Automatic annotation (TrEMBL):
This protein's UniProt keywords: Amino-acid biosynthesis, Cytoplasm, NADP, Oxidoreductase, Proline biosynthesis
Catalytic reaction(s) noted: L-proline + NAD(+) = (S)-1-pyrroline-5-carboxylate + NADH + 2 H(+); L-proline + NADP(+) = (S)-1-pyrroline-5-carboxylate + NADPH + 2 H(+)
Molecular-function GO terms, alphabetical: pyrroline-5-carboxylate reductase activity
Chain residues that bind NADP(+): 68-71
Annotated stretches, region: Disordered: 269-289
GO cellular component: a single term: cytoplasm
Biological processes annotated in GO: L-proline biosynthetic process
Record-given protein name: Pyrroline-5-carboxylate reductase
Length: 289
């Protein structure tokens, strides 16, 4: 029997999941999206040929409901899901892609005993090269976990991690693609400053990042060894790396990931709305940044 998969939220990561699942062979008849913005709903329906509807309809008959919505929208969606179809709820696996919110938030918001899996994916899912980290809720059976892992493996790699590592995971792989794209932007701008056309600088940068990523992934060598192999004694790379270090590159990456993890840790608090320590999260393990 085919599995019906609902994706609530047709934004960036919801679309990446949808596109990845379709590319990996999932049939569009087994996929349904809930998206509340009418313009976006039409774009998704036109582009992918899937049903785009409301949360309740999407969840009906779905074995898996992926939540690809912002943290602020979670409570209202959980209310809709728990009033949708009481009998089905304990069978249905809710898979949250939302940064920062703990498993307990979903387990408390859904019918008692509902299986919930928390995932931190990333946008390379669009090209079936995601890195997804998975933490398992207390009511998830082994078969249910295996099924979610199998689904995510169709769009990339999967690691199962304890929930306490999720903030760090978000800082490395969840937000990580943005750091690489920022590096690409900076390299392209630097190439233009050195006299290359933007088209040339883009082609050189994109292929360099692609090739370096593949080499790192496939050679079995460490980043330290691979960097050393590029760095000829007294040569051009050594001059560049000296400037990176003098300008705090390593420190910048460290501070950036720390800031990212701190925001992930506080996501449940919605600090802009309620102030730190506000009543929305139910979390008690949040430190000052
Ligand atoms: N982008 C990324 O790389 C990653 C994102 N995530 C997580 O994924 C989640 C979504 O992020 P992202 O895709 O970037 O955000 P987007 O804002 O692009 O997408 C969220 C979408 O969900 C829609 N939505 C909100 N509430 C509902 C509802 N009740 N029913 C149907 N649709 C709804 C929003 O509509 P509207 O705009 O009208 O509110 C919006 O189109 C976040 O929690 C984030 O932490 C995790 C890993 C990576
Ligand atoms: O920026 C964000 O909050 C989301 C979570 C990880 C990547 N994007």
């Amino acid at each position: 029997m085919s599995e019906r998969i609902a994706i609530v939220g047709g934004g960036k990561i919801g679309e990446a999941l949808l596109a990845g699942l379709i590319q990996s062979g999932k049939q569009t008849k087994d996929l349904v999206v809930a998206e509340k913005m009418p313009k976006r709903a039409k774009e998704i329906a036109d582009e992918y040929g899937v049903l785009v509807t409301d949360v309740t309809t999407a969840a009906e008959g779905a074995q898996y409901v992926f939540l690809a919505i912002k943290p602020d929208d979670v409570d209202s969606v959980l209310r809709e899901l728990s009033s949708a179809d009481d009998d089905a709820e304990s069978e249905r696996v809710t898979v949250s892609l939302v940064a920062g919110l703990p498993l307990s938030r979903y387990e408390n918001g859904l019918q008692a005993g509902s299986p919930v899996v928390r995932v931190m994916p990333n946008t390379p899912m669009l090209v079936n090269e995601a890195m997804s980290a998975v933490s398992v809720g207390r009511y998830v059976g082994d078969d249910q976990l295996a099924a979610v892992v199998r689904l995510l493996e169709t769009v990339g790699k999967v690691a199962v991690v304890p929930e306490k590592q999720m903030d760090a995971v978000t800082a490395v792989s969840g937000s990580g693609p943005a750091y690489v794209f920022l590096m690409a932007e900076a390299m392209i701008d630097a190439g233009v400053a050195l006299g290359l056309s933007r088209v040339q600088a883009s082609e050189l940068t994109v292929q360099t990042i692609r090739g370096a990523g593949l080499l790192l992934s496939e050679s079995g060598l460490s980043p330290v060894d691979l960097r050393a192999a590029v760095t000829s004694p007294g040569g051009t790379t050594a001059a560049a790396i000296r400037q990176f270090e003098a300008n705090g590159f390593r420190h910048g990456v460290y501070e950036a990931t720390r800031a990212c993890a701190a925001v992930s840790k506080k996501a449940g608090y919605r600090p802009d709305v309620e102030g730190l320590g506000g009543p929305s999260s139910g979390r008690t393990d949040v430190d000052a940044p």
